[in-house]
Design brief:
By secondary structure, this protein is α/β, with parallel strands linked by helices. The chain has two domains: 8-85 and 160-230 and 326-386, FAD/NAD(P)-binding domain, CATH 3.50.50.60; 99-152 and 232-322, D-Amino Acid Oxidase, Chain A, domain 2 (2-Layer Sandwich). Helix content is 28%, strand content 25%. The strands form four sheets. It has an eight-stranded mixed sheet with strand order 5-6-4-14-15-16-13-17, sandwiched between helices. Strands 8-2-1-12-19-18 form a six-stranded mixed sheet. It is globular, with a radius of gyration of 21 Å. The chain starts with 7 loop residues before the first strand and ends in a 10-residue tail after the last helix.
């Protein structure tokens, strides 16, 4: 670790995670160093931050992720104040209508009950609904094959993720962070430590401590330091469709068969489904797989919501998950051997919602040498080295 409170921090990756780290570090009164963020594409055309479905929940299986979700929703509720610059307050469009997890088997119901007990202990406002209760609350939902549902009554929903990215970036710059629009190509290593990031034009950015926040491309950055990071770019397709029938109080719904859907304005919805492992290669081109909708999504959506028989697809896009192949959880903190290299990667589709807590946590490591508020130690790199996964069961 460099001298606490005064390091020259260099962040590789200026998406929502990297920008959140820069923002929280620069905002800390104890910080006397500098922050430089290297981002090769300031338009964020291919960035996961710009292509996210931007939802937030507390219905996780791991206590650390439940706590991260709790901090995230509290931050988003007050983000207009936290991230205001020169009186301009960002509008994030937070909608707290909840996640609805559905189970269709006895084992699935038992899993929801186990997770519910942990979530409630940590303050998450989740309720369990049997099929009659589901039918009464959501009459547009087909429930005959279901055994149980778990609904977040508060603290879950969706928001404008691209606006959150831009708000963190704008606030970080206002607080003194420097953004460099350039492609990082390697590390200059001196002995056991990294001394600088090298750029494509031959220049270098010197620093005391370095953060890999490169999202789906984080493994390449880690290789510059000789580190094998189990994070891969996995394509996920999001489809936009219109439905003429209103679905009152519709939350974000997770179907037992795999698809998810949520409202996006009046009469419009987003949906998606993770492909099977055999159909989920690394670094697939960011081209929408339209057959996925026709073959895997539409039939299941229409079976769950009869009104979706009349849906009409109006748009689609493809983006990358920074998928942690080891245990599908974030990897946060310093490497045990490369002592001035920190990681903030592998969130497996949850980076947007976890950015506030991870940004604050990594900033605390940089400024104070340890976590001061939320303990993110369960997400440390050490578990990769020792081969002890922290499996997150609730990944979609």
């Amino acid at each position: 670790m460099p001298q606490v409170g005064t390091p020259r921090v260099v962040v590789v990756g200026g998406g929502v995670i990297g920008s959140a780290i820069a923002c929280f570090a620069c905002a800390d009164p104890a910080f006397r160093g500098s922050v430089t963020v290297i981002e090769r594409d300031p338009t964020y055309a291919r960035a996961s931050s710009a292509l996210s479905a931007s939802s937030i929940r507390q219905q996780f299986a791991s206590p650390v992720n439940i706590a991260i979700g709790g901090f995230g929703i509290a931050f988003l509720r007050e983000a207009a104040e936290h991230l205001a610059v020169d009186g301009e307050r960002p509008a994030l469009g937070l909608v707290e209508r909840g996640y609805l997890y559905l189970a269709a088997t006895r084992d699935g119901a038992d899993t929801l009950r186990r997770h519910h007990a942990t979530q409630r202990e940590l303050g998450a406002q989740i309720v369990l609904l049997d099929p009659p209760a589901l039918r009464a609350r959501f009459p547009w939902l087909a429930v005959d094959d279901l055994t149980l549902g778990a609904l977040g009554e508060r603290g879950e929903g969706w928001f404008d993720g691209y606006s959150l990215l831009q708000a963190f970036r704008r606030k970080a710059r206002a607080l003194g962070a420097r953004y460099v629009a350039a492609e990082a190509t390697g590390f200059a290593v001196e002995g056991p430590r990294i001394a600088a990031v090298t750029l494509a034009d031959g220049a270098r950015v010197d620093g005391d401590v370095f953060v890999d926040a490169a999202g789906p491309w984080a493994a390449e950055v880690a290789r510059w330091a000789g580190v094998d990071l189990p994070v891969r770019a996995r394509r996920r397709c999001v489809f936009v469709f219109a439905c003429p029938t209103p679905l009152p109080a519709c939350p974000l719904v997770i179907d037992p068969a795999g698809p998810w859907f949520r409202p996006e304005g009046e009469g419009r919805f987003l949906c998606g489904v993770s492909p099977g492992e055999a159909d989920d290669p690394d670094d697939a081109p960011l081209v929408v797989d339209h057959a996925l909708f026709d073959e895997a999504l539409w039939p299941r959506l229409a079976a769950r919501v009869p009104a979706f028989e009349a849906l009409r697809v109006t748009g689609s896009w493809a983006g990358y998950y920074e998928y942690n192949t080891f245990d599908r959880n974030g990897i946060v903190g310093f490497h045990p051997d490369v002592r001035n290299l920190a990681f903030a990667n592998g969130f497996s589709g949850h980076g947007m919602q976890q950015a506030p807590a991870v940004g604050r946590g990594v900033a605390e490591l940089l400024v104070h040498g340890g976590y001061r508020t939320l303990d993110l130690a369960p997400l440390a790199f050490d578990r990769i080295v020792t081969g002890t996964p922290l499996v997150e069961a609730n990944v979609i």
